[in-house]
Specification:
The chain is α+β, with helices and mostly antiparallel strands. It has four domains: 190 residues, Immunoglobulin-like, CATH 2.60.40; 128 residues, Neutral Protease Domain 2 (Neutral Protease, domain 2), CATH 1.10.390; 259 residues, Rossmann fold (3-Layer(aba) Sandwich), CATH 3.40.50; 91 residues, Sandwich (Immunoglobulin-like), CATH 2.60.40.4070. It is built from 15 helices and 47 strands. The longest helix is centred in the middle third of the chain and has 42 residues. The N and C termini lie far apart (76 Å). The relative contact order is 0.05.
Length: 833
């Protein structure tokens, strides 16, 4: 056993006047337990190789209730030699890391008392060898107890501070909290350093760092900036003192004078890793000795984390999120606007990646020290500042600091303070969506310009159903010039129409970096599907839009009832059209045939969904008028639906027609596309044509019941879009559908994979839209072909649409575009280089 008689004989207990130092904090910022710690007085000696220690701590406390048992935390690896109160031994028992002291006499509330705990041992955490000495460091929450007895929760600060009497070999200089009041030489070539810190302090901010330090000191506005440097590296300390003065000038202005100006701002070169904001004695590992950004972060903790501390570790955002944002503000002073923006963007991407991996909220995060707490937390403050403005944000944060300085604060305290300054609306929505919910908004934007009006469609496409309330800035770019407009998103989809004479070259979201989000897609309308809802108040188009959003296909929903028929100029700008007529009894009469004929004549890919159209095919001239075909008789036989030979559009039609009974499965045939389960006695018609694509379906996707494998609304739309040339992949149909399957998969590098399942040999050919054959492969039953976008001579082909033809038994292998009747499958693909 190690006896500390020499050390203990030097220890003097000061008189405590609690009444003069009582802190009166709002209820939300106080968590009570059986007593309140007033002060720690720690006497400790460290022994080479600096992995063991022995000491004694005097805890001055005030009971909050009648108490006969005092709980104190100490790691199980440490041995308790004795515990005394008023020089009387106290009995105790231990449960894990807690000592329960049975007091010889019960204490009434508010009677200031002292208890002395003598201990020794080899800590399992919190004590580390470094350079020629050692350091104590709290690498996890509630680890101070691993090397000294204390009440180890951040919400009970020692209101009157701490004294530390540290004995080490004479070659070491131990640095700790507060002011060095004296150094005593004692026997055995040892020194005892006396440090006194007279401010409220949480246990995790108590530290000792010992090495053969050189002491560099400057006077800044009347208080000392001290850097404790490893010999040979003092030039780095001088450089960091230069940046420290810049940082201190900023924080003194933005927040308040340095909270420990009557003692010191101490910074220390140490071993270990990272950095730690120990109160008045900040520690930096070697990788941060020359990092002014790290210094800015740790110095900011003097205000956010040290003087004002989070109420518990579940709300560590109060410390780390706030500090991380003030780190960014300091970066602007040190490195200019470019450095500020780069740091913000680095934090945003790191926070988003953390969200993608863990899906943790900031408050009650499983890891209170995760990047979501630090960097997404910084973005909370950045968004709050941009929401309420600098004239309110900075005064509100100063008021928050002043009210809770020296104590603890909660998220509720922060919100209440902000709302005292920002009176336009309660901010529950803001705090809830950014602090208490995981993840982030994801946005798609599609736009077009028509007749001096800019139409912008913004969709929130995050996986969950939560809709964010977002102030979003849009950048309208004309060359290198950007005009910024601000919009407020309240719904999953927002249609914004602005009067704008000239069409912008491009549009960006959040050009000034004010929102924590991911822009998933920004697309001009030329790459979008136009969904025309002609369903007369049935609002069916939203179902198709949801599926397009789900598979990330840009789209624009056009409600005919409210907007009228879509203008020809709009139709000309899109890449394909879905036209939905709904479940009305006379759907064909509502179709704008002039526009349909325009679409067909110009070979725009078209899908028409008209639920009750089958019963009207024989009663109208719709097919003949619009598609160039004649319906005559029973549509259960394919030869009853023929092309109109007098209309060139009707030549070469290939139809798949099948009567659909209730609960019957419909699968693609060798001439059809799509896969669906229909619950009505109707007809499903899917149509292909040699020179462009039309799909006509008498089934609305809301009529498709859940079923296994590929027969879903999602995959029906996928197959139609794939048929139109969109880069979407479809699952294999069930094995009893067509005997010949060609699956097309788009690869990340721009290549296209063709997977063929066929009972006999076949030929796969690729043609351009002029009818020129580019490349072909002879296939033997099952094959995998990877096309890299070159022709048979190895020339790289431009991006665009190409026709893919699959022939069995090498039919249609001539140099001319084969007749559709000899083709088993016909597709278009979109090559993206």
């Amino acid at each position: 056993m190690i006896i500390l008689l020499l050390l203990i004989s030097q220890f003097v207990h000061p008189e405590i006047n609690k009444a003069g130092n009582q802190f009166h904090l709002p209820q939300d910022s106080v968590i009570t337990h059986s007593y309140d710690v007033l002060k720690y007085n720690l006497t400790v000696e460290f022994f080479t190789p600096y992995d063991t220690l022995a000491g004694m701590v005097v805890i001055t406390f005030s009971p909050n209730q009648n108490m006969d048992t005092l709980p104190v935390h100490l790691g199980q690896a440490m041995t308790v030699d004795s515990i005394t109160m008023n020089n009387i031994l106290q009995s105790y028992h231990r449960i894990e890391d807690t000592i329960y002291v049975s007091l010889t006499s019960a204490l009434p509330p508010h009677l200031v008392s002292e208890i002395s705990i003598y201990y020794q041992g080899k800590p399992i955490d919190g004590l580390f060898q470094a350079f020629s000495g050692f350091l104590t460091d709290v690498e996890i929450n509630q680890a101070a107890k691993q090397w000294w007895p204390c009440f180890d929760y951040c919400w009970d600060k020692a209101d009157l501070g701490i004294e530390l009497h540290i004995t080490v070999p004479e070659n070491l200089y131990p640095v700790s909290n507060g002011v060095l009041t004296g150094i005593d030489s004692i026997s055995g070539n040892r020194l005892t350093f006396h440090w006194v810190h007279q401010h409220p302090i949480a246990t995790y901010l108590v530290a000792i760092l010992a090495s053969n330090y050189l002491v560099l000191q400057r006077n800044y506005h009347g208080y000392p900036l001290i850097y404790y440097a490893i010999p040979g590296y003092e030039y780095m300390a001088e450089m960091m003192l230069d940046s420290t003065e810049v940082i201190m000038s900023l924080f003194d202005t933005l927040i308040d004078t340095f909270p420990f100006a009557d003692e010191k701002l101490g910074q220390i070169q140490s071993g270990g890793r990272g950095a730690m904001e120990n109160q008045t004695c900040i520690r930096y590992a070697p990788n941060s000795w020359l990092s002014p950004i790290t210094h800015a972060h740790e110095i900011a903790h003097s205000w956010w984390g040290d003087a004002l501390t989070c109420i518990n570790y579940q709300q560590m955002f109060i410390n780390e999120g706030t500090t991380s944002y003030y780190e960014c503000l300091a970066t602007r002073v040190l490195q200019g606007d470019e450095g500020f923006n780069q740091r913000l963007e680095h934090m945003r991407q790191g926070g988003l990646d953390c969200d993608d991996q863990h899906h943790w909220p900031i408050i009650n995060s499983p890891d209170p020290f995760g990047l979501n707490v630090y960097w997404k937390g910084a973005w909370f403050h950045h968004m709050l500042r941009n929401l309420i403005g600098d004239t309110l944000y900075y005064p509100a944060m100063r008021a928050f600091y002043h009210q809770y300085k020296g104590g603890n604060a909660s998220i509720t305290d922060l919100q209440n303070t902000i709302e005292q300054y920002y009176k336009l609306e309660p901010l529950d929505w803001f705090f809830q969506q950014w602090l208490y919910r995981p993840d982030y908004p994801q946005l798609n934007l599609w736009w077009y310009h028509h007749q001096q009006y800019l139409h912008i469609n913004i969709t929130q496409v995050q996986p969950d159903s939560f809709i964010y309330k977002i102030p979003l800035e849009l950048g309208l770019w004309y060359g290198n010039s950007c005009s910024v407009s601000r919009e407020y998103l309240m719904e999953q989809r927002e249609l914004i129409i602005q009067e704008l004479i000239s069409c912008p070259d491009s549009i960006t979201m959040d050009p000034q970096m004010k929102l924590y989000f991911r822009p998933r897609r920004i697309t001009p309308l030329a790459q979008s599907v136009l969904i025309i809802d002609d369903g007369q108040s049935q609002n069916l188009g939203i179902n198709y839009q949801n599926i397009c959003d789900q598979i990330n296909i840009p789209n624009l929903l056009w409600a005919v009832e409210s907007l009228g028929s879509p203008p020809f100029s709009l139709i000309q700008q899109v890449s394909s059209i879905f036209w939905i007529t709904g479940r009305i009894q006379n759907p064909l009469d509502s179709i704008d045939r002039e526009r349909l004929n325009f679409i067909i004549t110009n070979h725009y890919p078209l899908a028409i969904f008209s639920t009750h159209a089958a019963s009207q095919l024989s009663q109208t001239s719709f097919l003949e008028d619009t598609l160039g075909v004649i319906f005559s008789g029973d549509s259960g036989y394919s030869n009853q639906l023929v092309g109109n030979q007098q209309d060139p559009i009707g030549n070469g039609f290939s139809w798949y027609i099948n009567p659909v009974q209730r609960y019957e499965f419909i699968y693609p045939s060798v001439q059809g596309e799509g896969c669906a389960y229909f619950q009505n006695s109707d007809y499903g018609i899917i149509r292909s044509k040699s020179n462009f694509q039309i799909v006509f379906s008498t089934v609305d996707i809301t009529d498709i019941l859940p079923q296994p494998e590929s027969a879903t609304p999602l995959n029906l739309i996928r197959r139609i879009l794939q048929y139109f040339g969109y880069p979407v992949n479809c699952p294999l149909p069930p094995p009893h559908s067509p005997p010949c399957n060609l699956v097309i998969e788009y690869q990340d590098n721009g290549s296209i994979m063709f997977k063929l399942t066929a009972p006999i040999s076949a030929q796969l050919t690729i043609w351009d839209l002029t009818g020129r054959k580019l490349i072909n492969w002879d296939l033997q039953k099952d094959n995998f072909i990877l096309w890299d976008g070159t022709d048979h001579q190895g020339h790289i082909l431009p991006s665009g649409r190409y026709i893919v033809k699959l022939n069995l038994n090498n039919q249609g292998a001539s140099e001319n575009l084969p007749d559709l009747n000899s083709v088993v499958e016909s597709y278009q693909v979109f090559l993206i280089k």
